[in-house]
Write a structure and sequence with these properties.
Layout: H1 5-8, E1 22-26, H2 33-42, E2 46-50, H3 54-65, E3 73-76, H4 84-98, E4 103-106, H5 121-146, E5 153-157, H6 161-164, H7 170-190, E6 196-202, H8 209-215, H9 225-228, H10 238-249, E7 260-263
Parallel strand pairs: 1-2, 1-4, 2-3, 4-5, 5-6, 6-7
Bound molecules: hexanoyl-coenzyme A.
Hexanoyl-coenzyme A binds at residues 109-112, 114, 118-120, 122-123, 126-127, 130, 159, 202, 204, 209-210, 213-214.
Length: 274
């Protein structure tokens, strides 16, 4: 699908900012990560989009490539982040075809609303496996490549649920706490080798699959009860997340390492009950 540039990028960034850079993005056909990818590609990067569904991933790669003439965007479908070998093959192919990897976005995630007593062991494990093991596998597969880059950068798309805990989200809260912890360890372990490792924690972002799953139809109504709980008085946009991504990957963010950048209009301080 095509979107106006204003949907995924503020008009404050310099053309060609990411010329020569390559981004590797898991969850890349999702509603947030595909916009992060558009922003990076529009500003000069080439990219590799990782997804589980082949058709959706190919289509997302084509749509993302269309934001800049000459952009190279590879879609690698049938890649499950829970499978270390899938990811290693994908990272190696990305580096071979696009000349390396500079930026990683660990964005693949699983979510559904369920009370604890409605969660089977396998349901809990599925989310932990996608979010935590998937993030570990993503780091492991891409590290050998980004360590050759002059600007190795990792962003993990996390959440704010675990700051307070959240009803119906015990599985996701546990998973995202672990993602934040992986981010911190990578910043300590690989900061000395130039890697910046940071989390972006989105709040309630309109028009996303996550919001559909968590907020349903009610969250689509103007001035809904969720909006009333957000200090900034509105839901976030995918552009807010894409802009934060551009900042962290750009030179402007090069002294930010081991940080969780919350992009939520202050919402987590009044965490809603879904
Ligand atoms: C209880 C559920 C359930 C539900 C699934 N399960 N949905 N349990 N309530 N609503 C259980 C199943 O019964 C099964 O357990 C286990 O979870 C695994 O389900 P599968 O469908 O076999 O697994 P899989 O195909 O791997 O799917 C994983 C998934 C699915 C997480 C369940 O939702 C998924 O693929 N999601 C990916 C896309 C996604 O969630 N995007 C949103 C990201 S948003 P049993 O015991 O029956 O075997 C996000 C939030 C960010 O992360 C924050 C925004 C503010």
């Amino acid at each position: 699908m095509s979107y106006p540039e204003s949907h995924y990028l503020s008009p404050v960034w310099r053309d060609g900012l990411f010329n020569g850079k390559v981004a590797f993005i898991t969850g890349g056909n999702g509603t947030i990560c595909s916009m992060q990818a558009r922003a990076l590609v529009r500003l000069g990067a080439n990219a590799c989009i990782i997804g589980r569904n082949v058709e959706k991933t190919d289509k997302a790669a084509k749509d993302i490539a269309a934001v800049r003439p000459g952009a190279k965007v590879i879609g690698i479908g049938a890649c499950d982040v829970r499978n270390a070998e899938h990811l290693k093959n994908a990272a190696d192919r990305c580096a071979k075809e696009l000349g390396g990897i500079d930026f990683v976005i660990a964005g693949a995630a699983g979510n559904f609303i369920a009370p604890m007593e409605g969660l089977s062991t396998n349901a809990f494990k599925s989310v932990m496996d996608i979010d935590v093991l998937g993030t570990f596998n993503t780091i492991k597969a891409t590290l050998p490549h980004i360590l050759k880059s002059k600007t190795p950068r990792i962003i993990y798309v996390s959440a704010t649920f675990h700051y307070t805990g959240l009803v119906m989200q015990s599985h996701v809260s546990a998973a995202k706490a672990s993602v934040d912890s992986l981010m911190a360890s990578v910043s300590l372990e690989y900061g000395p080798r130039g890697v910046n490792s940071n989390v972006i924690a989105p709040g309630a972002i309109e028009g996303t699959e996550g919001m559909d799953r968590l907020g349903g139809e009610a969250a689509k109504q103007p001035n809904n009860s969720l909006v009333k709980e957000i200090p900034s008085g509105r839901m976030g946009t995918v552009r807010n997340i894409a802009d934060a991504t551009v900042y962290l990957f750009s030179e402007a963010g090069d002294y930010v390492n081991g940080h969780a950048l919350v992009v939520d209009g202050g919402g987590w301080r009044r965490q809603p009950a879904f």
